Amino acid sequence: LLGAQRGAHGPSTWLDRIVDAQCAWLTAPDNALGTDNQLMLFWRARQLEAAALLHAGGVSDPHLYADALPPSSRSTRDADPPAPPLVLEWRRAVREWPCALFAFGVPSSEAVDVLVGVGVPFVEMGAGTGYWARLLRARGVSVVAFDAEPPERTLPGSNEFHGGCMTFVEVEQGEPNILSEPRWRGHALLLCYPPPRSKMALACLRNFCGELFAHVGEWLGDTGSCAFERHLLSHWELIRREPLPLWGDTSDDLSLWRRRAEPLPKAGGSHPL
């Protein structure tokens, strides 16, 4: 299909070869993935679809991206990555429903392995549908999932991000303040896509009494806040980062952190990554 569509657009280019390599990776068998991780399977199918419809069809020509770039920008927070208009529409259409029905971060089998390898139970705040919690439980990890507005336990539509969607595990109602309870000292905290422009992520770190923290989200992007990232830099030490499957307009990863024995002094302008 890709070869036939490219015929009308001239000889193969370096970008064609990159897309071919990506498609080969997407279609390679992943025995660790199984059928439980429906969001990852859906993500793979959408990436292959994008290669056929956008790249091979000429919609995502590099020159069109160059034309879409703004003259300058001080920050990308709260702004869609620049792209041709049709590509922007495609990105939104591809991402919005799976994010609402499953999770905003796509868990790869490698990312799940990293979390399993932490070796302690998890408490998740802002769990949404509980999709990540379900994958961890399937691997034998104990996870207690909380959300301020659990999708299935509150009024329809009261959860801003997941509406009244079904949950994959029982998600209990809970706010960040419960993370100070002594029962969580032996747990790791999991935050998956903490809401942007919100105090929620910072409140979780300030209240949490445990020593390990796992974060799924962007940096200087569309999750958490600058205050959250500054607190993370001064009070927590980065252990590991694991790349995640990305939608066309996201730049998130999984990172693991350990609480510092003593907070660092203010690091003027420094960023944890």
From TrEMBL:
This is Methyltransferase domain-containing protein. InterPro entries: SAM-dependent_MTases_sf (IPR029063). It comes from Haptolina ericina. SUPFAM superfamilies: S-adenosyl-L-methionine-dependent methyltransferases (SSF53335).
